[in-house]
Amino acid sequence: MLPRLLLLQQLLYRLSSYDRGSLHIMVDDWAEEYGDCYRLSLPAPGICVSDTPTIMAVLQQRPGTFSREAGLCEMVINFGFRGVFTARGEEWKRYRRLTAPHFSRPNVRNMVKYACDMAAKLCSNWAKHADSGEAFDCMAGCALYALDVGCLAVMGRDVGALDGARAGRDALRLKDVISARLCSPLPLYRLFRDDETEAAKKRFDSLVVGLIDEYRKQQEATATATGDAPAAAAAADAAIPAASSAVAAPNSNLLKHVLRATDPGSAAATDRSALTTAEMVGNVKTYMLAGSDTVGAGLSWLLYYVAAHADVQEGISAELLTEMAGAGGVNSEGLEDTLTWDQLERLEYLDAVVQETMRVRPLVPNIWTQAERDTAVAGVAIARGDSVIVNLRKPCRLDANFTDAAAFWPERWLIADGKRAPPEGVADFRHNKVVGSFGFGPRNCPGQVLAVVEIKVAIAFLVRAFTIGLAPGQGAPKEYEGLAMAPDAVRLVLQRRQ
Ligand code: HEM
């Protein structure tokens, strides 16, 4: 018989864990106590699974047998974020087909410039901390950086979050409010009016609608002038300045990509099932939200590890010295401001550090799904509407899967790839493919290539510019699960590198 948690026990745990953002730790603790598959009754009757074959089996059976958990989707939709994340069945297929290709590897190649522009800005902003020697919490800056790059990639606009511009503040507010609602044990926010958030939502929506109109008009005008739709699309790309210094690139933002792919009059269209303006707004906000909290949290964790492990920081710095020195431009403050896709691809050690950070601190520890029909998981009957919580965190932290799993040891990824030999004394090196940082199956993260680029570019620029240390008293951060699992605080001190 499957172990079952008592309803009261869950209720008490949930209420106490929500405000601490530690629901994911509770889910893990129960797996420790009750095993890789146990029954629970909240949010709906269902089970929680944490062994990799079962995890993969559940996540692969989407969109047909499982969808995202309904309560989570309802909350997100009520806040105006109806898009690929919340969609089910045929609607999901349509959204995914029209949006995800924009974040393919060849397209993301053209987005490295966005990350470089914003990383240079982040370095300039943080230079004041280096000059004053004052400790500061890096999390806000990381969140603003992720928002700016994300908005460039999805809307083609620099919303100026790092500059404190209003559009950036609006985007930040929407992200923060929805994250807070997700952590709220009871939907008390429904009882209160929040005029400022409503105003931010309206302004942000009209910014996106305005851009859609602008791109549509440019597309039509160029098509009429040339009578050549593919050329028109390319010319429209060139006509719209995406970022201050960004080069025009094919499909350089998600809105233009969707408009081009669905334009009924265009020979370049690959799909005629156009999205309505409301659907475009919902999806733009979805991508902006899904990309910013996760990348901001990931970058903050990485900065913690880089600051806490001087040897890791010097490893990254040494690799950058060979790749970046003399290769790119330098801005007015003497800080480097260019890194190419090909250079990024060669930064093997940095890649290992990113992967190791996501292993020890999975940014999305659980995926909450719901059965669309009666089915079975690992031999357990699941009724339509039951929830299945997939615990991605536990397999990443097991000694059975990774040698010395508790240790932060980036070199393990190079050893696993055959690029380094295991150290003496490690006879049975274990490195199993269980890390699902970006989920598994058809609904896995479409933004994963961009996410890794964003994190690498920011770390590369910051490590080239500064020696990064932990502020006095900064120990290992606590994990806080909101939209993504973030550290509670990462206080740093910076010194300019010579
Ligand atoms: C380090 C950063 C990121 C992490 C760890 C992450 C992780 C994830 C995970 C675990 C999922 C659920 C996958 C599943 O259900 O199997 C997901 C979904 C999603 N992510 Fe990401 N993500 C990151 C960055 C991004 C970025 C930058 C974007 C946008 C450019 C993005 C857009 C999305 C979208 C739209 C979905 C929903 C996909 C669907 O339901 O079809 N993510 N992400």
From TrEMBL:
SUPFAM superfamilies: Cytochrome P450
Gene3D superfamilies assigned to the protein according to its UniProt record, in alphabetical order: Cytochrome P450
Keyword rRNA processing annotated: no
Cofactor(s) listed: heme
Residues noted as binding heme in the record, renumbered to the chain: C445
Keyword annotations from UniProtKB, A to Z: Heme, Iron, Metal-binding, Monooxygenase, Oxidoreductase
Entry keyword annotation includes Nucleotide-binding: no
Chain segments annotated as coiled-coil in the UniProt record: none
Alphabetical list of InterPro entries matching this protein: Cyt_P450, Cyt_P450_CS, Cyt_P450_E_grp-I, Cyt_P450_sf, Cytochrome_P450_monoxygenase
Signal sequence, renumbered to the chain: none
A Pfam family recorded for this sequence: p450
GO MF assignments: heme binding; iron ion binding; monooxygenase activity; oxidoreductase activity, acting on paired donors, with incorporation or reduction of molecular oxygen
Record family assignment: Belongs to the cytochrome P450 family.
Name used for this protein in its record: Cytochrome P450
